[in-house]
């Protein structure tokens, strides 16, 4: 896991961003570009890194790519990412609480509806409903017997 507090401290103590990649070709090298990081935009007249920023590269197939990455991952960019991460976590927590509250409200509404339905039905209505169910069942059984007898060629 990332120690976000330590990363914030490192960002706060570093040269503030944004950082820019500066390149050059020097006649004393083999002709490949080399460069450094700078806090001033290219074309601003700056020719040397500010105090505390001395990252250079000269060789290696990933040297320039690494330098570009370091420039992009400057303190301002990392602090912005950490702030966004914190904001998203807070938002996720708020949505989780909202969902839990909604779930509890729905559950309570169901309980209230069932209790209201239970209270609305009297004992007499329950007995009447049972009688109606028995009558419907008996009619259904009689209909089945008639259909079987009809298929056999007998009518009761």
Description of the molecule:
The structure is a single chain. The protein has a 3-stranded antiparallel sheet, with helices on one face. It has helices at 4-13, 63-72, 75-120, 123-152; strands at residues 20-24, 34-38, 56-57. The protein has 4 helices and 3 strands. The mean pLDDT is 77. By secondary structure, the protein is mostly helical. It is 62% helix and 8% strand. Helix 1 runs antiparallel to helix 3. It starts with a helix and ends with a helix. Among the domains are: 18-73, no CATH class; 121-156. The radius of gyration is 39 Å and the shape is elongated. The longest helix is centred in the middle third of the chain and has 46 residues, at 75-120.
């Amino acid at each position: 896991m990332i120690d976000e507090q330590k990363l914030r401290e490192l960002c706060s103590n570093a040269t503030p961003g944004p950082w820019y990649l500066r390149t050059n070709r020097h006649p004393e090298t083999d002709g490949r570009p080399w460069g450094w990081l700078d806090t001033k935009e290219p074309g601003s007249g700056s020719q040397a890194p500010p105090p505390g920023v001395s990252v250079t590269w000269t060789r290696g197939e990933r040297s320039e790519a690494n330098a570009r990455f370091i420039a992009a991952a400057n303190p301002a960019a990392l602090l912005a990412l950490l702030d966004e991460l914190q904001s998203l976590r807070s938002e996720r927590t708020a949505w989780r609480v909202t969902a839990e509250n909604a779930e509890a409200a729905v559950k309570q509404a169901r309980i209230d509806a069932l209790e209201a339905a239970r209270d609305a039905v009297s004992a007499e209505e329950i007995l009447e409903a049972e009688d109606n169910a028995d009558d419907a069942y008996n009619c259904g059984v009689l209909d089945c017997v008639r259909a079987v007898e009809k298929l056999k060629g007998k009518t009761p």
